[in-house]
Design goal:
Elements (H helix, E strand, L loop, with lengths): L3 E8 L4 H14 L3 E7 L8 E9 L12 E6 L2 H6 L4 E10 L6 H4 L9 H7 L3 E5 L1 H8 L5 H10 L6 H11 L5 H13 L1
Parallel strand pairs: 1-4, 4-5, 5-6
Antiparallel strand pairs: 1-3, 2-3
Length: 190
């Protein structure tokens, strides 16, 4: 199988590392060679966080170059737009519509860009955008956005629900398991 590439992008503290761990676990359980690389940036200050997940028969490098991502999974709509150049021409964006002001916007040096989903669509991207924050809150915690996004991403993979559930159980602490399973289902069925 040709190597496939998934970028998980967001802002520090949103749970992107758990999402990449879960996806990596799922792919390894399906028998793929998997490489995961985390690029933190200023994650502890609300800065951009990027994780690369590459899988296939044989993966040599964990890094994804521009124009190579089959999927960009984004916790925040500006982050999806920021990394758009990494998406393949036929790639898929799965993004939360949540907006988190970056520092230049917070200090008044810039304005948050408007209508980003339509701008990405106009640029030719396939965009699956949903209010993951509202779904996470419906599941019981705003922190479950990561599992809402994984649920949504699952629609684009040909793996059984049982396989996804097994990886959720392996990666999520027991005391948060039911909440996270609910968030996954809400994202998948939204």
């Amino acid at each position: 199988m040709k190597t496939k590439n998934v970028m998980i992008v967001g802002v520090g503290g949103q749970g992107s590392l758990l999402a990449s761990k879960l996806l990596g676990h799922l792919l390894m359980e399906q028998g793929y060679d998997v490489k995961v690389s985390e690029v933190h940036g200023m994650s502890q200050r609300g800065g951009s966080v990027v994780t690369y997940v590459r899988y296939g028969d044989k993966v040599c490098s964990p890094v994804i170059d521009k124009g190579e991502a089959d999927f960009i999974v984004s916790f925040e709509v500006l982050e999806a737009a920021r990394w758009l150049s990494y998406l393949k021409p036929d790639g898929q964006i799965v993004t939360s519509t949540q907006q988190i002001d970056p520092m230049p916007v917070i200090i008044g040096a810039a304005q948050y860009p408007e209508d980003l989903v339509n701008k990405m669509l106009t640029a030719g991207a396939k965009v699956d955008a949903l209010d993951c924050l509202a779904l996470a809150q419906q599941a019981g915690s705003a922190k479950a956005v990561n599992l809402v996004l994984m649920g949504r991403l699952s629609k684009y993979f040909d793996f059984s629900d049982e396989a996804w559930q097994k990886s959720i159980e392996a990666c999520v602490p027991a005391k948060f398991l039911e909440l996270n399973k609910k968030a996954f289902e809400l994202g998948k069925n939204a």
